[in-house]
Amino acid sequence: MSAGIDYGMGLANIDRETGIRFGLISQHSIMPEALAELEPIYVRACPKCGEEISDDAPTVYTRGKGGRIECPACSYWIPEDELTGDDPQGYTYTEDGYHLSSGTDGFGIFVEKSPFYTFARFCSPCAPGAGNLDSHDPDGVKTYCLGVDWFDSDSPCPYPVYNVSDDSLVQALTVAE
User: Fold this and answer.
1) pTM (global) more than 0.70
2) Is residue 138 within 8 Å of residue 117, measured between CB atoms?
3) φ/ψ bin of 77: left (φ > 0), alpha (ψ from -120 to 50), beta (otherwise)
4) Under a CB-based contact definition with an 8 Å cutoff, are residues 59 and 74 in contact?
């Protein structure tokens, strides 16, 4: 079986240090409780032009007007209370040797670093160079993956899991290949 096409041409969605591909898994493939581990990312942006405003941008306080921050892109003076960022712009998880990220569109969870890997087919052009963790392929590319503790009996792990540190098998594939 072919691992598919590397639309990233060896340049995208790959850990250059290890040569392991980033993994992409559907949010519906892991146990629902695991999604609660992902932390929301809130981005403060100018309501006029949309430019991101850093957390360390200086705030100017004026009597009777409260704090205001000048947008570096359009020079609009933004009232401090307009920078709350009510809606998350994405999600992240950076614990236990993992670096995971996800948008808010339900596209999936990117596994950009992990103590574990598996073998998977390449993703479509939508995630060039990444391995599709929902499409295990024993002849596929070495791909960072989630460990078995992200799954349960209702959402079983869809691939075998190996340790990055010593290439030992952690768990064999438990569903039909």
Assistant:
1) yes
2) no
3) beta
4) no
**Can you tell me the distance from the alpha carbon of 49 to that of 55, in angstroms, rounded to the nearest whole number?**
17
Q: What stretches of the chain adopt beta strand conformation (E)?
A: 23-25, 39-41, 60-62, 66-70, 77-79, 90-93, 99-102, 109-113, 116-122, 131-136, 141-144, 161-163, 169-171
> And the tokens for 82?
């307009």
What's the angle, vertex CA 156, arms to CA 161 and CA 104, rounded to 5?
90
CA angle at 78 for the pair 76 and 80, rounded to the nearest 5°: 165
Q: Using one digit for the tens of pLDDT, what is the confidence trace for 40-62?
A: 887 778 888 888 887 777 778 77
Report in angstroms the alpha-carbon separations of 62 from 66, 69, 138.
6, 11, 64
Tokens of 160: 């075998």
Residue-wise DSSP of 97-116: T-EEEE-SSS--EEEEE-SE
